[in-house]
Specification:
The complex is a heterodimer of chains A (260) and B (260). With 260 residues, chain A is mainly α. Chain A has a single domain, classed as MetI-like fold (Orthogonal Bundle), CATH 1.10.3720. Helices cover 85% and strands 0% of the residues of chain A. Chain A contains 13 helices and no strands. By secondary structure, chain B is of the alpha/beta class. Chain B folds into 2 domains: 172 residues, Rossmann fold, CATH 3.40.50; 66 residues, no CATH class. Helix content of chain B is 34%, strand content 25%. In chain B, strand 9 and strand 10 form a beta hairpin. The longest helix of chain B is centred in the C-terminal third of the chain and has 18 residues. The termini of chain B are far apart. Classes of the chains: A mainly alpha (260), B alpha/beta (260). Chains A and B meet through helix 8, helix 9 and helix 13 of A and loops of B.
Chain lengths: 260, 260
């Protein structure tokens, strides 16, 4: 069995990773011809791993970034789904709150950051809030649309059952919107990563974003590349984790859509 | 288990009318419809598409408020869907919830009604056996064929042992053979619980085959223009009933009534 598992992992790597590995290999091969200080060869970036990755670095950069990202993403998603569900199902709430929501939504997250910075100062809370706000609006919007467009037969049936507002929302309209909400959540994961990096680059000295900026400004180009590559790997891993979790939690959705 | 004595509801409508207000003038869909349906009776309403049949049956169900007149169920004014009424719509595949298994879909009418889990389970098992889906209680609706999905919808309608069953073109989206099967299934089950049944359909053969009384709805605004008592012997049989001379003459009368 263990042998089988190893075979599968090896097969997976061969299938999915041969092309990136090829690029790294070629990058290394042509390093002499490149001879550009801003494109250090992979071997040099690998060397930087050995002195950069210390327990202290892991706490200050990697863990800090993960907390910012996951904390902000979680808070923003939960609040976004909640607000979207209310606005999508209640016409009065929509009339009152949608215009202001749209206005704030249309201000780019990066432009909102200084305001949050001024209000909360530099720190983890600020970064989490910045990410949460950036995630909140797109999740709200997609949930709102999905809930407002719940299939009319499904709505009719919940009326026939005599479900009250909350029961209809939680037990009928939200599950009916599963597909759209998952799409929104997945897209928001990218937004969250982007805004996490930006929030770390302005002001704060911690996180991967700050590490990349610092490395760049002190001409530690290999370190900078290491930071960028780690961000890339982090993004891929989070996306993979997202897929695993959504399939574990909503197996019926993927099976009913004939998706794998 | 002792057989629960059940009796159908009496349905009365008084000068029932509905109109939609368009930009210029209110458009009347139907008006001055007076009909009395006796307990245990099976009544069909035939009409061409767009005549207002579906709107009419939704008014009876308490899903749509009439603009004039009133519906009475056992002498009581209908304002919201009654607990003793079940409704089966044409689009079964969209009124079944894809995130719930067959048995959980069928148990939906009991949600939030404070009925013991065990009691619900007994009733669901029984009704699934009656519609011939005992082996599929843990399947999801989207894993079943169209005819089987409509059986689930029928089971879900009958699990509460309704006194009034409303059918909105219930067999319009299944193939001809399945349609015959489902017609007989519904006739048997309705007979067993002695429910009053009102069905709207554009299929005059189906209306003749299943009903005690058939109305034709036509005109703009629509009225009940033809009324026919169907005195064909019971129990009805797909091969015998449909070849009786009386079947053919009723069918002919309905056909001419719908064209008028």
């Amino acid at each position: 069995m263990a042998n089988n598992g190893m075979k599968r992992i090896f097969g997976f790597i061969l299938q999915r990773l041969w092309f990136p590995l090829l690029i790294i290999f070629i990058w290394q091969l042509i390093q002499n011809k490149l001879d550009n200080p801003f494109f250090p060869p992979p071997s040099k970036i690998w060397e930087s791993v050995q002195y950069v990755v210390t327990p202290e670095w892991v706490t200050n950069s990697l863990t800090s970034s993960l907390i910012t990202l996951l904390g902000g993403y979680f808070v923003g998603s939960v609040l976004g789904i909640f607000a979207g569900a209310i606005l999508g199902s209640d016409a009065i709430a929509r009339t009152i709150f949608l215009p202001i929501t749209n206005f704030i939504r249309c201000i780019p997250s990066v432009a909102k950051a200084p305001v949050i910075l001024a209000l909360l100062g530099i720190g983890l809370t600020t970064r989490i809030v910045t990410v949460a706000i950036a995630v909140f609006f797109p999740v709200l919007l997609i949930t709102l649309r999905a809930i407002a467009n719940t299939d009319k037969w499904i709505v009719e049936y919940s009326n026939l059952l005599g479900f009250n507002y909350w029961r209809a929302l939680l037990q009928v309209r939200l599950p009916a919107a599963t597909g759209e909400i998952l799409t929104g959540l997945q897209a928001a994961l990218q937004t969250a990563t982007l805004v996490m990096v930006v929030s770390e680059m302005i002001g704060s000295g911690t996180g991967l974003g700050a590490f990349v900026m610092r490395s760049q400004s002190t001409f530690m180009i290999a370190d900078m590349w290491l930071g960028i590559l780690i961000l890339g790997v982090l993004g891929v891993l989070l996306n993979g984790a997202f897929h695993l979790i959504e399939k574990r939690v909503f197996p019926w959705y993927f099976a009913s859509q004939g998706m794998k | 288990m002792t057989k629960i004595e059940n009796s159908g509801s009496e349905v009365n409508t008084l000068d029932l009318g509905i109109s939609f207000v368009t930009k210029e003038v209110p458009r009347e869909i139907f008006k001055d419809i007076q009909v009395k349906v006796l307990p245990g009776e099976f009544v069909s309403i035939c009409g061409l598409s767009g005549v207002g049949k579906s709107t009419f049956i939704r008014v009876l169900a308490g899903l749509i408020r009439p603009t004039s007149g009133a519906v009475y169920l056992d002498g009581e004014l209908v304002t919201t869907p009654s607990k003793s009424m079940s409704f089966v719509s044409q689009d079964y595949s969209r009124s079944l919830f894809p995130w719930l298994t067959v048995s959980k879909n069928v148990a939906l009418p009991f949600r939030g009604k404070g009925i013991a889990k065990k009691e619900i389970q007994i009733r669901v098992t029984k009704v699934l056996a009656e519609v011939g889906l005992s082996d599929f209680s843990d399947s999801y609706p989207w894993q079943l064929s169209g005819g089987m999905q409509q059986r689930v919808a029928i089971a879900r309608a009958l699990v509460t042992r309704p006194r009034l069953l409303l059918l909105d073109e219930p067999f319009a989206s299944v193939d001809a053979h399945t349609r015959f099967e489902l017609e007989d299934l519904v006739l048997n089950l309705v007979n067993e619980i002695n429910a009053t049944t009102i069905m709207v359909t554009h299929d005059i053969d189906e209306a003749t085959y299943m009903s005690d009384r058939v109305f034709v709805m036509s005109g703009l605004p629509a009225r009940f223009t033809t009324e026919i008592d169907v005195k064909l012997p019971k129990p009805r049989s797909q091969s015998i009933t449909r070849s009786e001379p009386e079947f053919l003459s009723i069918r002919d009368e309905l056909y001419r009534g719908m064209r008028r």
